[in-house]
Amino acid sequence: MTNLERTPVWDKTFPQSDKVEHSKAVFHNRYGIELAADVYKPKGTHGRLAAIAVSGPFGAVKEQASGLYAQTLAERGFLTLAFDPSFTGESGGSPRAVASPDINTEDFSAAVDYLANRSDVYPDAIGIVGICGFGGMALNAATNDPRIKATVASTMYNMSRVSANGYFDADDSPEKRNATRAALAKQRTEDYANGDYARTGGVVDPVPDDAPQFVKDYHAYYKTPRGYHARSVNSNDGWNMTSALSFMNMPLLSYIDEIESPALLVHGEKAHSLYFSKSAYEALEHGVNPSNKKLLIVPGANHTDLYDNLDKIPFDAIEQFFEKNL
């Protein structure tokens, strides 16, 4: 549990709070992968606290948005854990920059394993926050793990849907999916021959003038001092190209209508990705316990505003949600 190399200095994309104690942690998932994390704890607290594990966005590291969420929620009284998913950041796993609907869902449950065994956490008062693509993973984890007592999915992506159908479902046809499968199968052969895994290239840089606005928004976060981080997949070479195969073949969110615990979906009114949360909420409100599910649409906010814009992220509502349900 001490094999991971962890940066000893504060290298976050946000300033350190003087209201919070910060420490580092390592825990493992049930596949034996060690995960690196930051623990944030309100200063001056004693005894047990409700706890929240945070991860995302998809392609980010704990020094970016998830750390900001974790630190802010710690300022509001929770013990929080921001972690790097398997195969990324300071966490273990090889090859690097691989995403998996199963393993990344498991990462959230592994965080619950760790938190439930801390002496300063109430084991029956643990929630999770997933941002962007890890919002989908968080809902997936809440479906499968009743120890998760409350879930927030912020500016959520359904990575299975976008991998299989393209943006806005523009490529939703067997023919286009089969073409993608053929291209990625060919890539697998080439990767094996090369002894390495080709990457997607990360967020496009420079951005063409005719690029969609959401691509420009991603660039403004991942490729500028606002959000760039040297260990972030999106800030650099991107994901392993063949990661999309597992998301296409093993869909996320198949059973989210069976989530019994409370869930809050937060999304920007102007976000290109809003349709993911709307569809997920439709499943939740027709599920086994619709009364404790809510969709909160933030006026005027785009997708990346909910990464780090403290004027847009509705932390008051998120705090109230966790106070009520933890």
Helix content: 25-40%
Give the overall shape, derived from the CA principal axes: globular
Tally of contiguous helical segments: 10
Straight-line N-to-C gap: 29 Å
CATH architecture level-2 label of the domain at 20-158 and 252-325: 3-Layer(aba) Sandwich
Low-confidence stretches: none
Mean pLDDT: 97
Structure commentary:
The chain has 326 residues and is an alpha/beta fold. The mean pLDDT is 97. The longest helix has 21 residues, at 174-194. 34% of the residues lie in helices and 18% in strands. The chain is built from ten helices and eight strands. The chain starts with 19 loop residues before the first strand and ends with a helix.
Features:
alpha/beta; 8 strands; eight-stranded mixed β-sheet; Rossmann fold; 326 residues
Structure described in brief:
The chain has about 325 residues and is an alpha/beta fold. The chain has helices at about 65-75, 100-115, 135-145, 160-165, 175-195, 215-220, 245-250, 275-285, 305-310, 315-325, and strands at about 20-30, 35-40, 50-55, 80-85, 120-130, 150-155, 265-270, 295-300.
Write the layout of secondary structure elements.
Elements (H helix, E strand, L loop, with lengths): L19 E9 L5 E9 L6 E7 L9 H11 L3 E5 L17 H16 L4 E11 L1 H12 L3 E7 L4 H7 L8 H21 L18 H10 L21 H6 L13 E6 L5 H12 L7 E6 L6 H4 L6 H11 L1
Parallel strand pairs: 3-4, 3-5, 5-6, 6-7, 7-8
Antiparallel strand pairs: 1-2, 2-4
